[in-house]
């Protein structure tokens, strides 16, 4: 935050306009400007300002880490006197302040002034039907009294009755602050895997690692957890979530079995099964070179565009993590021929090299430059125009008669083409 902005906001605390003072106090608090000059200015306006300005100044001081007796007493007074909407806003400020306070090592935490009376006030707010206000009060009390049975009971009740967002707030407190890892908590975490909020799904996946395999097994939820995570590997639209699932199944010792199932599923005659397996392996990784070569063959033979795209994406993800695969995809060219469907042919990579390098026809070798080429099979059906796949350059089909090649580059090109069709070295390192 620039010094000029800080100075302008601090100067606005002394403005004759009440709204400008309130805005300045609010901004200084939420922007985290907590140096001595700002804190002194907030203290000053908290003593001399109007009631509305005082309220904003005290809330800003709380957010900036000042939880002494006068601040807590002022916030408590707001909770007792304000209307419902204003009371909720004060509770949110208090929860944010106490969250930061609880994250500080115990030896360095300042004392919370007026604490016992604040605890009683929060308990009174909890002793009401579940709503945003009572939940925020429970979260505040959870930071102050993580072992409080009343708070734990209220939050566990919230897992059954609250909305998805309310359940997630309760889960964070139960799992991370209170270390409650019961069956109800695990089930609530698994339900959050279906949340519409990406951050909540990500956090729920990571919470499963905190619960651990032994507790999940003892709760009889291992099979359910396995099935949900396995599905999440392919039906999650975001790669970052799929990667988090991969890390969690690894921590829960489920990864080897899921990889084995997905590798076997690559051979399924069902298009959806193959695509699910390909997407899942993109996050899970690769265990041996056979799977890598199988995907290359599938890229060559697969006719479904969506599956072909998934193969391309998985190969790119693998290449981003594995230098060996990156090198293979950078230096290898796949020559794909248009062959009549009545002719039985081997996968492209296992074909014998052409009898004569002249049989290999490249439309524009200077454009290709031996970049990563993923060439899909192109069928010249009646009435359809053959187009180059979006992912690659296109190699035209060989012609029986071609004029002899000319140019100083001819011998070098022939040598490169011969090298490209030779067997490659085996893989030495994996994801």
TrEMBL record:
Source domain of life: Eukaryota
Protein's name according to its UniProt entry: Protein HEATR9
Gene source species: Apodemus speciosus (Large Japanese field mouse)
